[in-house]
Amino acid sequence: MSTNPSLPISRADVEAAAKAISGNIVRTPCLKSETLSAMTGAEVWLKFENLQFTAAYKERGALNKLLSLTPEERARGVIAASAGNHAQGLAYNAKRLGIPATIVMPRFTPIVKVQQTEGHGADVVLHGEKFEEAGEHALALAEKRGFVFVHPFDDPLVMAGQGTVGLEMLEAVPDLDTFIVPIGGGGLISGIATYAKAFNPKIDIIGVQAELYPSMHSLMSGKPAPCDGDTLAEGIAVKTPGMLTRQVVKALVEEILLVGERDLEHAVSLLLTIEKTVVEGAGAAGLAALLAHPRRFRGTRVGLVLCGGNIDTRLLANVLLRELARSGRLARLRIRLKDRPGQLFEVARIFDQQQVNILEVYHQRVFTSLPAKGLIAEIECETRDRDHLHRLIEALRAAAYDVQMVESG
Question: Which intervals hold domain ACT (predicted)?
Fold first, then answer.
């Protein structure tokens, strides 16, 4: 595919992909965020790939691959191993093109993702406890039944398709200085870097990975590190990057930054509260890196890819509540009371005086290490900010109450 023998894809491949998929994917907005720009000191441009039909950029690469198939290959059908966005992107576009699709998913895959993939007309096969086992089974089925295997990232056509994100961003904002791109297997950053560096060799390409899954970072730094744990950025929790993608990353990516779970949670929350857009952990990784390394990007024009918006609603609710707790707007106070009539009333009166809203009260007499006449009240409350919370605590202590904050995670 590539005219450059040293790399798997070229700028021409990305441009060809853009022509091939044009009109069949959403040309998502690329908008400047005035608020995030003011917060970070950089000029921040956001590419809203969470607005694709399946809520992720993965449609681009999957469609580009499908459109390349011969009539004979289309009749045989395609197969992939995925528990996430690649599964839905491939299944959706295969259905539109009349191509039979089979998706192998690990047995632990949430039922909602199985149903969504089946809803796009794919035949779902549950196999293995880990993604690697699902991948091996998909390859075995491809050989046995003649399916065309569609890799989620380590395929030149898929990489070129993902690179159309960068092409569209540079058409919208030609003078971008930096791209900050999440890395899982490396398909997205490979496609973007290939096009962007050909467009302007001075553009910086910065990758981002979760601290719990620093697979590409480890390869590039030569410092092996474990990849394990429950990360909010499950979409980029890839233990083994692609063989093709690592070639592009090594040649074209300046740096790979690691972000922690709190950084990811904060970024997801900010995008919802500031931009009013729902983004999954992987999709918020670029903003997380920008917020964690503000000096690195201050004064530059930065492009961030919000690469997906598929986040479980309960998980999103948990993230938002934890952010409220960290900011001091939501708190749980443990207050030691004396066993006398009116004690809880007196405490509530102080909350009223401080104009703090009480959300929940837990009054404990039995399951405590305090003396028999001692008791604990835990009160969950809502304040305006951390200073407001501190004023409440000072007022309670001034009234001779022993107060402790129950810290959030």
Answer: 332-409
